[in-house]
Amino acid sequence: MVESMNEIFYQFKGKKMTLTHLFKAQAIFAWLWAVMFWLAPQMAVQGPGWTLTPDMISFGQVCAIPLIALGVFAWNAPAWVGDNLKRVGMIFGVYINVLFILAQLFHISTGAAKFDPLGMLPTLVLIALFFWKCRASD
User: Fold this and answer.
1) Residue 10: burial class (beta carbons within 10 Å; 0-12, 13-18, 19+)
2) Which pLDDT does position 19 carry in this prediction?
3) d(CA 52, CA 59)
4) pTM, full prediction
5) How far apart are CA 114 and CA 102, in angstroms?
6) CA-CA distances (angstroms) from residue 81 to 15, 35, 84, 87, 127?
7) Which of 25, 28, 69, 137 has the largest CB neighbor count within 10 A?
8) Using CA atoms, how far apart are residues 135 and 133, in angstroms rounded to an integer?
9) 64-97 tens-digit pLDDT
10) First and final CA of the chain: distance in angstroms?
11) Cβ contacts of residue 87 below 8 Å, gap of 6+?
């Protein structure tokens, strides 16, 4: 087991994380939420402490469609935007993700949701990584 873990580590050693990798991670994150809204809605509402109702299940399934579209955009953005990848990374990876955080904080402040650090942490990590890679010089 240790040898296989070392092999995995050395396989990726020296490879850099790029904006393309971050866009793909963003896409996978969006798609995970879309799948969760369809197949595991109880899991999606557990963190914020919401009560799952048939209306919420239906609304979550409708919201999953734009999440799928966001994932498709994120996955393909590196090929579609060319030299403007850093600008799109700031808009998509930082500003739009900040809006997700602000919406969560608003719901927490009004008592509509509980604070769920595990739900917020991946978004905060993506914001930090996108900001870092978009501000880095070539």
Assistant:
1) exposed
2) 93
3) 11
4) 0.83
5) 14
6) 23, 27, 6, 9, 20
7) 25
8) 6
9) 999 999 999 999 999 999 889 999 999 999 999 9
10) 38
11) 81, 134
